[in-house]
Amino acid sequence: MAKINPFQAVRPTKKNVQNFSSRSYKTYSKDELKKELKENPTSFLSIINIKKNPSFSTEKSKRYELVKKRFEAFKTSNILIKDPLPSYYIYETIQANGHLFCGVIATASVEDYENQIIKKHEATISKRENTFKNYLKKVRFNAAPVLLTYSNNLNLGTRIQNGKQKASEFH
Q: Which residues partner with 14 through β-bridges?
């Protein structure tokens, strides 16, 4: 069985959670993106949307540095906070068809991946892997979790249901 572990998330405060989330910036038209950034200056888009400046358009590391600085500014201004203790996080979403999806956000073992306990579902492109690796080295955060599935597990299901019933900071 794969090992998963709790971690200390950096997340929006209760006051800022409502406007923080966004869909992928790639799905916004130019006008929609401009409007969203103006109306929600504390959204995640405000961290990652760095206008491409021609003076460093070929140097991604400079753009990555700007992303890191914005992320740090959000933490300094308490829009984002780091949880004091490692935790597991329950994520639940309802799709357009009304189907409910629920899971756990946690860390997974790279060793389990390398030893094929966590199975690969697709081949990846080396160039994109290297771009992402360089991005992570510079910005030091990942906002796009990897989806893993698991066999039906009554114990985990019970723990998730118990966790959902406990008081949480926000829904």
A: none
Is residue 170, in this structure, part of any structural domain at all? no
Q: Which residue range is the domain that position 45 belongs to?
A: 4-165
| CA 74 – CA 80 distance, rounded (Å) | 6
Total structural domains in the chain?
1
Residues 59, 64, 68: CA angle, nearest 5 degrees = 155
Tens-digit pLDDT string for the chain (171 aa): 888 999 999 999 989 988 898 888 888 898 999 999 999 999 999 998 876 555 555 578 888 999 999 999 999 999 999 999 999 998 888 777 888 888 899 999 889 988 988 887 777 788 888 888 898 999 998 887 788 888 888 888 898 888 888 866 666
Q: Single out the residue of 122, 113, 93 nearest to residue 105, CA to CA.
A: 93
Dist CA 17 CA 40 (whole Å): 11
Residue where the block lists tokens 């760095």: 50
Alpha carbon distance, N-terminus to C-terminus of the chain? 30
Please list the helix, strand and coil fractions of the chain in percent, rounded to the nearest 5, in that order. 40, 15, 45
- Number of neighbouring beta carbons within 10 Å of residue 12: 21
In the chain, how many H helices and how many E strands? 7, 6
